[in-house]
Amino acid sequence: MAIKYLKKSPKTPSTDDSKTAEIVKKLLKEIEQSKEEACINLTKKFDDYDGEIIVSKEKIEKISKELDQKTKDDIQFSHERVKKFAEAQLKNYGQDFEVELSPGLYAGQKLIPVNTAGCYIPGGRYAHIASAVMSVTTAKVAGVKNIIACSPPKKGIGAHPAIVYTANLCGADVILNLGGVPGIAAMTNGLFKNPPADILVGPGNQFVAEAKRILFGKVGIDLFAGPTEIAVIADDKADAEMVAVDLVGQAEHGYNSPAWLYTTSRRVADEVIKRVPELIAELPEIPRKSAEAAWRDYGEVILCDTDEEMASISDEYAPEHLEVQTQNLEWFHKRLKNYGSLFIGEETTVAYGDKCSGTNHILPTKGAGRYTGGLFVGKFIKTLSFQRMTKESTKSVGAACARISRYEGMEAHARTGDVRLRKYGFSN
To answer: Is 160 a catalytic residue?
Structure first.
């Protein structure tokens, strides 16, 4: 039978988005300019509050003493179950599971792939064959049903033949001759008889990145990506020639591709500074121009006194690609926390990961390695929770829910607990 709306909403969750966006942009700009002062002034304006911003330990202790015990017990009840479930999630990371949180209360998770993935494959300055491998293959392994690939076309040719071959080999269901903003928009909106993408993945230029940023929310994205980055950590035992070659290897990506060296060796620093321009000068015209601009405007060499200083500055930058060429490889492997992908020892290099060694090259940039990793099968898989209960378990859960809801001022929430307590013969 056909779908029939007995009540149809005149609005959608996105109805007020444009108005909200303008307000938020204005507020964010104000806070960016005036920082703490703006936060304080806006809090006075919107919340009519002019007290302390950072809650003091004394205030926390005072609240803990004054809050009624029953409320604290209910909060503890909630905390214990949420903590137990989170612990079960960590223990069973990447797996379906179900756990009994308290008698009769069962909760779990299911891992379900998104239905449609849009894979953007750059093909302007360079034919990024490897990007097709990285995005389409990973989506296929994750179990995505519909995989749409798109890549910029060349006049009279369409997308680069090797990209078309690769995308098809790796499992793309549809391949579009579209690049830039049109490609991103087409996959998002389900154009050319395709289903709308649930997630967009893949690298691209600043226009591709901005389109993904603007559309995020309407569609999921892998990460907010900017120009590619490389950093090398090197001590006095490092081969300066190899370090310089690796820095240039990434600088050719584009005029705004940062290349950073953190080193405790003045010798290595001086040799790299001398060799990088020489190596760039030997490149063909297109990569030479990109690398020249990148090294001139974005290259850095930072001299440190200790391994710890190198690790600290690296974690501050959170580089997309991070090579470690030192004596103490294991120490750095354990110590480093912020990066997109790590390359340990001079035997490996960023280009290996970029092209063919197995790790994914779609990685966080602009410091995003502080809070996320790169593309992996999990980006295409939704981790969805569920719960089920016995009637008997309602006695404790329903009562606690109703009391917490009323303490929050959410009466309708409370009544969803009340109605079940009454039906199953329990009092609140």
So the answer is: no
CA distance linking residue 197 with residue 73, whole number of Å: 45
Catalytic entry in 252, 320, 323, 346: 320
Alpha-carbon Rg for the chain, nearest whole angstrom, is: 27
Verify that 290 and 172 share a domain, yes or no.
no
308-354 pLDDT tens trace: 999 999 999 999 999 999 999 999 999 999 999 999 999 999 999 98
User: Of the ranges 53-67, 180-194, 372-386, which one carries the lowest mean pLDDT score?
Assistant: 53-67
What domain range is 394 assigned to? 71-111+390-423
Backbone angles phi, psi at 71, to 5 degrees: -65, -45
Greater confidence (77 vs 379) lies with 379
**Residue 275 sits in the same domain as residue 167:** no
What is d(CA 238, CA 90) in angstroms, rounded to the nearest whole number?
38
Give tens-digit pLDDT for 102-112. 999 999 999 99
Inside any domain, residue 121: yes
**19 occurs within a structural domain:** no
Is there a catalytic annotation at residue 87?
Answer: no
Which residue out of 252, 321, 323, 361 is catalytically annotated?
A: 321
- Report CA-CA distances (Å) from 421 to 41, 75, 80, 102, 400: 46, 19, 22, 17, 11
**Total domain count for the chain?**
3
Query: How many angstroms separate the CA atoms of 359 and 377, rounded?
Result: 11
Do 191 and 278 lie in one domain? The reply is no
* 10 found inside a domain: no
Q: Decide if 66 is inside a domain.
A: no
